[in-house]
């Protein structure tokens, strides 16, 4: 069985909403039905076959070849299966995703994994702002699952995040983990200003000391934590991309905050 | 044809429409432009909703607070209709289209705060097709309570009430938790009918009787619209019976009475008081009620009653809520809520509403409402009508709710089924008469040509959900439940008389305490009709 592959034929002038291309919907449909799925492009609905060359027969594992970042809503609300994207994707990657696995070999734009409630998203390149945040107006952001960004992330990573893990291999922008309710964000390179501002609970782990820590965070000194040992052991066992966690010691400089809210969150600097 | 105001009960008649009005049979020389063959169909006047929260600050807060409601129910634009969204708190355009598609042609917003009246009217101006109107909210405002506390003359209070109706372009007066919204701000969390407001020293009973008297003396057709004390509190049945007695024979309309008909019997200290309430309503011809039926599902409760909304905020679903003060004159509470058929309390609330419908004998004094959106969105009216007209359907639904609630309810033993004539009374003739809308709610010569034509289906829900034709002011606006023409409805207002001398007192008060000047507070007719937003119809006082 080869993955059901969608190869973009055209160079779209407008965003392409490909939210119907998820295993939940495709696994129940025949090849002919899939070819006629309407895809929203600008104001029109175009059958999928006019936009993509469709090959393969495994409807639970989908591969999408993209030549630019115009594909929006990739894997929206998917609950099982895998989606692999060769190329860049646009906004709202894995929005409200409930389960399954998305792998993007290029970059993703803003709102990656926003309001997701399960599953895992791996992004080999960079992402825009609001990764793992909540849809505007929602009380909470991402509430379960895992996002692994190998490159850099934009501002407001994990804004209003409720649960789950976000790991950023590169740099994170400003307001990392702002208004967080709970969950874990790990940044292995530099972080911008205002990390954790207005966070209620949750943990932000920074491998490098940020240039700026907000005034409402208070230093608790250097501590050795069993939690970190467990976390690092678990993560390093998850795959070779996480082998770096095997090298960290379970010791961190702990800042508690945000004390302008209730101060039950923490920033840990390794 | 069903036209209860003229006693027409299912007779075959012709209707002639000319220039937006129903006329008598024209001379044979007059050319008829268009004929509609309505054989085997049911013809009624356009329906009137006497109590539906469709405009004003609280609806907007509900919209802002529930983005998921709007994401979950998008309405695309068509060539003639505009886009919108929202199921429990729909956008203005969606509200107008959905009401018109169901054959409703007049809707009254029951809680327009005078300080917010301009906003409410602007929002209602955006609601297409249907006619609008609003009750001005009094009874918790500082100026009125001060007058009452200092024992001001009755005529002065009448002048103030009349001035408010004129200034805010209202069609009636509503009082919400009389004195209770104000008492909440002075840290009282409960206010019974004879309990005094700790700051002003006045009781809800005084407020009710004063306002009811003023409404009567001014000749306002719609009786004082009362949202009483202790809404939703188990045992409030006694308060409601006291309130009926407190009216002292004056006309009074008790809104969403289902929420005021709870007893404290049984293991769970929550029981139905419908039998007592219905008995009292049947015995007091000065009382009219609307039910405020709940139907299961997600909705949002929006009320001026901050006291009760604060008490209910713990049940918010999803967990977010707003309680706010508005200009120190009243308040506003918005709490999203999900009624569950497997919850004892919710299931019993459902049966209480239906019991009230079936136990109150006179359909002229009971109106069909869900207190949109508090009990359920107005789009569930066809379902509710089927529950009333179809006993076996009702009993089927009864068997699906919480077992104990179904067991303690007398609903299963009630055989009454509403007839089409009674439905026509309850949703057309009676509201028009109660509101004093002279040329609405009937099909006689001179009436506005607001006509709804239904297919006579056995499934009443399907029948009332999608009328075959809906005419508004003589224009065919909807066909088979789809909008085919968009026009702007009118705004119904009253202009009762008052002594201009009151403005002097009010001006001093406004200059001293209010956030705006007296002259800015008053709404001009032109503001409502501006930009082609439909005209104003001034109804006459009695």
Low-confidence stretches of chain A: none
- Kindly estimate the percentage of residues of chain B that lie in beta strands according to DSSP: 15-25%
Percent of residues in helices of chain B comes to 25-40%
Q: Tally the beta strands of chain B.
A: 26
Spatial strand arrangement across the major sheet of chain B: 6-9-10-11-12-13-16-20
Q: Nearest-angstrom radius of gyration of chain B?
A: 22 Å
Beta-strand portion of chain A reads 25-35%
**Mean pLDDT figure of chain B:** 93
The number of helical runs of chain B is 20
Query: What structural class do you assign from the helix and strand content of chain A?
Result: mainly beta
Features:
heterodimer; A: 270 residues; mainly beta; 2 domains; 13-stranded mixed sheet; four-stranded mixed sheet; 9% helix; elongated; B: 542 residues; alpha/beta; eight-stranded parallel sheet; 34% helix
Task: Provide a quick synopsis of the model.
The complex is a heterodimer of chains A (270) and B (542). Chain A is mainly beta and 270 residues long.
Report what the structure shows.
- The complex is a heterodimer of chains A (270) and B (542).
- Chain A has 270 residues and is mostly beta strands.
- Chain A folds into 2 domains: 1-81, no CATH class; 91-269.
- In chain A, 9% of the residues lie in helices and 31% in strands.
- Chain A has helices at 23-26, 31-35, 48-51, 226-236; strands spanning 3-8, 16-17, 38-41, 44-47, 52-55, 58-65, 71-72, 82-86, 101-104, 117-123, 144-149, 165-168, 184-187, 203-206, 218-224, 251-257, 265-269.
- With 542 residues, chain B is of the alpha/beta class.
- The two termini of chain B are 29 Å apart.
- Chain B has 20 helices and 26 strands.
- Chain B has one domain.
- In chain B, strands 6-9-10-11-12-13-16-20 form an 8-stranded parallel sheet. A 5-stranded antiparallel sheet of chain B has the order 5-21-22-23-24, with helices on one face.
- In chain B, helix 6 crosses helix 8.
- The chains are: A mainly beta (270), B alpha/beta (542).
- At the A-B interface, loops of A face helix 2 of B.
């Amino acid at each position: 069985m080869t993955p059901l592959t969608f190869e973009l034929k055209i160079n779209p002038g407008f965003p392409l909403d490909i939210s119907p291309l998820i295993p939940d919907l495709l696994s129940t449909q025949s090849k002919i039905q899939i070819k006629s799925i309407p895809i929203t492009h600008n104001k029109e609905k175009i059958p999928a076959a006019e936009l993509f060359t469709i090959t393969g027969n495994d409807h639970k594992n989908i591969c999408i070849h993209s030549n630019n970042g115009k594909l929006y809503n990739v894997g929206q609300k998917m609950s099982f299966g895998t989606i692999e994207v060769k190329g860049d994707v646009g906004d709202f990657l894995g929005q409200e995703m409930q389960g399954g696995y998305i792998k993007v070999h290029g970059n993703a734009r803003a709102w990656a994994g926003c309001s997701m409630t399960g599953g895992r998203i791996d992004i080999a390149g960079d992402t825009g702002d609001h990764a793992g945040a909540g849809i505007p107006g929602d009380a909470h952001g991402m509430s379960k699952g895992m996002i692994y960004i190998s490159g850099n992330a934009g501002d407001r990573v994990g804004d209003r995040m409720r649960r789950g893990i976000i790991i950023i291999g590169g740099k994170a922008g400003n307001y990392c983990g702002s208004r967080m309710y709970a969950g874990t964000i790990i940044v292995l390179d530099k972080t911008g200003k205002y990390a954790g501002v207005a966070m209620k609970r949750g943990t932000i782990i920074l491998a490098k000391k940020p240039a700026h820590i907000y005034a409402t965070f208070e230093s608790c000194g250097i501590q050795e934590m069993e939690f970190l040992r467990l976390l690092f052991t678990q993560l390093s066992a998850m795959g070779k991309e996480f082998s770096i966690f095997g090298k960290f010691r379970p010791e961190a400089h702990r800042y508690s905050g945000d004390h302008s809210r209730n101060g039950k969150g923490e920033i840990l600097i390794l | 044809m069903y036209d209860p105001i003229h006693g027409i009960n299912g007779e075959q008649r012709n209707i002639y429409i000319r220039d937006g009005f129903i006329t008598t049979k024209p001379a044979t020389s007059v050319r008829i432009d268009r004929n509609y063959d309505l054989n085997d169909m049911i013809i009624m006047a356009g329906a009137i909703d006497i109590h539906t929260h469709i405009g004003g600050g609280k609806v907007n807060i509900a919209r802002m607070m529930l983005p998921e409601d709007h994401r979950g129910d998008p309405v695309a634009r068509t060539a003639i209709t505009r886009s919108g969204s929202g199921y429990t708190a729909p956008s203005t355009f969606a509200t107008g289209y959905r009401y018109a598609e169901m054959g409703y042609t007049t809707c009254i917003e029951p809680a327009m705060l005078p300080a917010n009246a301009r906003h409410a009217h602007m929002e209602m101006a955006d609601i297409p097709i249907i006619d609008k109107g609003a009750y001005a909210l009094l009874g918790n405002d500082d100026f009125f309570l001060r007058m009452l506390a200092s024992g001001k003359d009755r005529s002065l209070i009448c002048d103030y009430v009349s001035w408010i109706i004129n200034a805010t372009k209202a069609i009636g007066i509503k009082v919400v938790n009389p004195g209770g919204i104000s008492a909440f701000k002075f840290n009282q969390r409960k206010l019974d009918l004879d309990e005094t407001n700790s700051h002003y020293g006045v009781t809800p009973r005084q407020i009710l009787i004063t306002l009811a008297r003023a409404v009567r003396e001014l000749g306002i057709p719609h009786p004082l619209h009362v949202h009483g004390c202790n809404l939703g509190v188990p045992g409030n049945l006694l308060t409601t019976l006291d309130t009926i007695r407190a009216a002292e024979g004056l006309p009074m309309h008790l809104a969403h009475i289902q929420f005021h008909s709870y007893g404290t019997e049984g293991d769970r200290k929550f029981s139905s008081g419908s039998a007592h309430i219905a008995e009292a309503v049947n015995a007091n011809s000065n009382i009219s009620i609307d039910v405020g039926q709940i139907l299961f599902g997600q909705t949002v409760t929006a009320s001026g009653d901050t006291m009760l909304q604060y008490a209910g905020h713990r049940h918010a679903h999803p967990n977010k809520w707003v309680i706010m003060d508005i200009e120190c004159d009243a308040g506003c509470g918005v709490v999203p809520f999900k009624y569950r058929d497997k919850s004892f309390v919710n299931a019993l609330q459902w049966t209480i509403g239906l019991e009230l419908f079936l136990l109150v004998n006179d359909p002229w004094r009971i109106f069909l409402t869900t207190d949109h959106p508090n009990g359920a969105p107005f789009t569930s009216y066809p379902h509710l009508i089927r529950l009333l007209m179809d006993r076996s359907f009702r009993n089927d639904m009864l068997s699906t709710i919480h077992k104990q609630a179904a067991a303690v309810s007398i609903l299963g033993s009630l055989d009454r089924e509403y007839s089409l004539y009674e439905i026509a009374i309850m949703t057309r003739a009676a509201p028009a008469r109660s509101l004093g809308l002279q040329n609405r709610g009937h099909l006689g010569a001179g009436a506005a040509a607001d006509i709804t034509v239904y297919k006579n289906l056995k499934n009443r829900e399907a029948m009332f959900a999608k009328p075959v034709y809906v005419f508004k002011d003589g224009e065919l606006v909807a066909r088979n439940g789809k909008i085919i023409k968009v026009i702007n409805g009118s705004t119904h207002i009253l202009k009762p008389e008052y002594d201009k001398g009151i403005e002097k007192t009010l001006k001093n008060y406004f200059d001293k305490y209010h956030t705006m000047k007296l002259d800015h507070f008053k709404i001009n007719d032109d503001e409502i009709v501006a930009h082609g937003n439909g005209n104003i119809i001034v109804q006459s006082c009695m």
